[in-house]
């Protein structure tokens, strides 16, 4: 540790006001009966993550009425505040910063809030500090309880850590933050590319816009090759799933793909590193986790090259994944994902877009079963039997030629993000301990 670094604890860096360190309200005060579609977003455990760089998970908020949230001023979190899980998945930490969707949040009963004093600590530096493997391990070791681990305000206060001068904190957070900013830019690019591919899919195969344009007298259609447009029928005929173009087949998912169920027991290979595709890995940027076999507790599916992964858990949340080609390590996936192998290589991205299509997902959600809304699952055979349109192969081939470059670019962005995340994770503990200084990086 550098000579100008000091050992500090959370109490040393929090704001001196009474709300500088606080827990959320009692559970009954923020129970489901108060939830509504607008208002102050409530940060729950599902909105936090153990993944570095995932500062908030902003997909599934519930909202509290403004007047109800106002009853708990100490539990209001604003930009610059950190949020910790105190019951459940302890070790999760979030940061409300420039990326956050809202200016104000209410912390739930199972979370804690830290408001740093900006004259003493850089919020982003503290976020990386509490995201580091060392501090995470400390939190987990302090956990109380077995079935539902707990971590309380007093324990958070007691954590000690090396703290550099504020100027050095800012320099460190800028370096790590720049890597995360580029990762976020790549993720935005991937989302934009996938939206474009999905828009083309919907135009061609859901709304039949080229056929409607042809009926209206158009002699071509943007994005559709002329020979394909010229060959289109101008008639739509009734089917069990609604009107479809004449000559197109109504089939099932099984006409486009098979389901691979090949399994492996990673613990039989304790020292082998696997690329592990899991739901947490998907939710933190679609980057497979690198895990030793001995750390993976149960059987997993083998990822088949060129497959499409579809999560059977909670189909209302779309988790569809295109695993990249293997990079020398075996690829495995959680059994919460189904491994679909396209019958033809040209259909991989068609299948992906079909799974992403909103009416298809809604249909899946309606057929799911489970004990609660958060643990609904689709039965694999039901999914294989779902009715879908199967256009003639030449049309699917032209669609593939059109959108394959979009997915290739998206794949390159994801690969770059993986390398950036590896660099960040390598630098993070070294910068936070003082082993590597900013002078060393000049």
UniProtKB/TrEMBL annotation:
GO terms for molecular function: DNA binding. Residues 79-188 form the Type I restriction modification DNA specificity domain. It comes from the Bacteria. Keywords: DNA-binding, Restriction system. GO terms for biological process: DNA restriction-modification system. Belongs to the type-I restriction system S methylase family. This is Restriction modification system DNA specificity domain-containing protein. It comes from Desulfocurvibacter africanus subsp. africanus str. Walvis Bay.
